[in-house]
Amino acid sequence: MTAAGYRMRDWEAHPPLLFPDYKSTVLRAPTKPLVPLKHTLSELTGPVYGHERVGPLDADLTKNGAKNGEPLGERIVVTGRVLDEDGRPVRNTLVEVWQANAAGRYIHKVDQHLAPLDPNFFGGGRCVTDDDGRYRFYTIKPGAYPWGNHHNAWRPNHIHFSLLGPSIATRLVTQMYFPGDPLLDLDPIYLSSPAGARERLISDFSIDVTEPGFALGYIFDIVLRGRYETPMETPK
Amino acid sequence: MTMKQTPSQTVGPYFAYGLTAEQYGYPFTAIAGGKVADELCTGDRIHVTGRVFDGNGDPIDDAMIEIWQADSEGRYLHPEDGRSSNSVFTGYGRYGTGTDPQNRFLFETVKPGSVDGVQAPHINVILFMRGQLSHLYTRIYFSDEVEANAKDPVLDTVPEARRETLVARREDMPIGVVYHFDIHMQGEKETVFFDL
Ligand SMILES: [Fe+3]
Q: Which of A21, A75, A150, A189 would staple A215 via disulfide (CB 3.0–4.6 Å)?
């Protein structure tokens, strides 16, 4: 069969596998070069999840973990478009998020940060993009939290994003940051992505997305790998 | 081409309640887990299990393995393919290495058929973990497919001495057929990862 493959991962955007300032990479990065793989049907396909897998509260993190009240913290709207490299919307694709609560604490069992859990905040959510490639979450602005990478290490406020896209080649896990955060320039995970590219991880504050009397708005667009224009022959 | 790719960032240590919630016992449904095929799927039922080892040879307890595979007839549930012939088979699984006492990943699935009649049966793997800034791709081939593996065009591009790292070892156990596939990030047995 012939089909247009996906463009390669842009290593001028993505972090290197070994980045010693982020200490855990030292024992976990492969030492041998990646082997190039010409796309076959295995790489041109991937899991497809539509609206049927998403519950009504999944995109509202201010409600999906609520037990007896509202979660604490600054309520925000996070929205944006998932696009490919040609600027085309990636429709009907799953966007999954997880994050710390307003105090910088994850619900995860191994998070030992001495900050309180919020009984009304879980911190996980998901939605499916619409015909314009748009997603939208209500949530609470996550707090910064300390980690053990180096002396006085703190992660900047961030929301983790996981995207499937149309094939396994477009799979992406990333993090969204907030504008003006003084911790960004001290954070090896943010700094691992090359300058000129990492700035794309910072969301924009938007007064137009902001809902009066309710929630501040942030826009975070995400660009997945696009396809080559010309079909190429898959290995026979 | 007008837009630039969004950089990857690590999945971090706390992905479990967002991405593999049911497996870890959190009150949030997961879109995929370790059970990829249920009893209604046709094909040979198999288990695929293994561990992920760091450069010290220690098993990693905060990795997430995703698998993507064709059904027993070699078809993917995807518009690019002719759709899966097994209507209840998604071909997609996710498993974190933090719940098993030995830090294994554990998939129950069916053995995939040959994709496009050319490639040897294989399972595509996407690997994530704390300490990994961009995800990695590898493939699981099967030790009882010697002939097909010898003709596989992807294995053919891998240096011969390293092909073994992509072949899961079959063991017939009381629970059924188990394929063992360990992933080594570094060292003599370093797994082959693909740039795709
Ligand atoms: Fe985090």
A: A75
Cα pseudo-dihedral B23, B18, A142, B12, rounded to 10: 80
Q: Other C-beta atoms within 10 Å of A170: how many?
A: 22
Nearest residue to B68 (alpha-carbon basis) of A127, A234, A82, A40: A40
Q: Which residue of A has its CA nearest to B8?
A: A174
CATH number for the A23-224 domain, one of 3.30.420.10, 2.60.130.10, 3.40.640.10, 3.60.15.10? 2.60.130.10
The tokens of A16 are what? 């290197």
What average pLDDT does range A175-180 have in this prediction? 98
- In angstroms, the CA A100 to CA A142 distance is 5
Chain B residue with the nearest C-alpha to that of A189 = B9
The whole-model pTM stands at: 0.96
Bridge partner list, B177 = B46, B172
* Marked catalytic residue, from A75, A136, A160, A200: A160
User: Residues A186-190: contacts with CB within 8 Å, 24+ apart?
Assistant: A186/A153, A186/A154, A187/A154, A187/A155, A187/A156, A188/A19, A188/A21, A188/A22, A188/A149, A188/A150, A189/A22, A189/A155, A189/B9, A189/B10, A189/B133, A190/A156, A190/B9
Per-residue pLDDT of chain B (196 residues; tens, 9 = 90+): 689 999 999 999 999 999 999 999 999 999 999 999 988 889 999 999 999 999 999 999 999 999 999 999 999 999 888 777 776 788 999 999 999 999 999 999 999 999 988 999 999 999 999 999 999 999 999 999 999 999 999 999 999 999 999 999 999 999 999 999 999 999 999 999 999 9
Contact B186 A222 (CB under 8 A): no
CB-side exposure of A95: number of CA atoms within 13 Å? 31
Which residues contact residue B126 at a Cβ distance below 8 angstroms, ignoring those fewer than 6 apart? A168, A171, B65, B66, B67, B68, B135, B136, B137
Catalytic-role residue among A22, A106, A138, A190: A106
